[in-house]
Amino acid sequence: FAPRELQYLFAPFATEGTPTLQILANETVIARLVESVPAAASLSLRTLRPFQPVEVGGYRITGVPATHPNGEEVALNLLVYDGRTQLLYATDTGWWTEATWSYLDGLQRQIDLLVLDCSHGDCATDYDGHMGVEAVLRTRERLLKSGQLHEGSRVVSTHHCHRGGLGYEQLVARLQPGGVEAGYDGMVLEMPPRS
Q1: From CA 96, how far away is CA 117, in angstroms rounded?
Q2: DSSP-derived secondary structure letter, 189
Q3: Given this model, what pLDDT does residue 161 score?
Q4: How many other C-beta atoms are found inside a 10 Å radius of the C-beta of residue 114?
Q5: pLDDT, tens digit (0-9, with 9 covering 90-100), for 8-66
Q6: HSE on the CB side for 99, CA within 13 Å?
Q7: How far, in Å, CA of 77 to CA of 85, rounded?
Q8: Any bridge partners for residue 22, and if so which?
Q9: Rounded-to-integer distance, Cα 110 and Cα 105, Å
Q10: How many Å apart are CA 159 and CA 171, to the nearest integer?
Q11: Closest Cα to residue 95, out of 114, 123, 118, 74?
Q12: Phi/psi-derived region of residue 9, left when phi > 0, alpha when psi is between -120 and 50, beta in every other case
């Protein structure tokens, strides 16, 4: 999060009108934004709290706690529902806590598209704030077993790191047999049709 980038929405950089940007974030991010760019207090700022859905522009967005420890804030993954299909965007997370798994296991609507952190690739690490190939595959399997993914659900990896030890073709070779697509820069995803 680079709050100073939003200064360009306001005078003296912007000379016409008031920006209409809506920002949903946890309390820490909103506080840092307003501290860094005081004019941002005039934007539509909404606090996103764990497991509490908000309606924005025809979407229901729910913050789902990520496992991304830094001691300063509650990191959130995003569950987005448009009334037809559901996306879980889960980057910057390691293996979820039981509270998050319990929430996901109780979803009334299956996940149609899961975009999931795969920063660690094949490398072992003590840091639990990101996933690697094995955790991505285990996550998909657990969500399939609990019924939260359906046969047509897509699972796509993201947030890859050069330190993960795998090039794109190697990543595909590791993920594809487990039903996961390896994401790449410029990839455009369409929500899978429901039968």
Answers
A1: 12
A2: -
A3: 84
A4: 23
A5: 988 888 877 777 888 999 999 999 999 999 999 999 999 999 999 999 989 999 999 99
A6: 8
A7: 17
A8: 44
A9: 10
A10: 12
A11: 118
A12: alpha
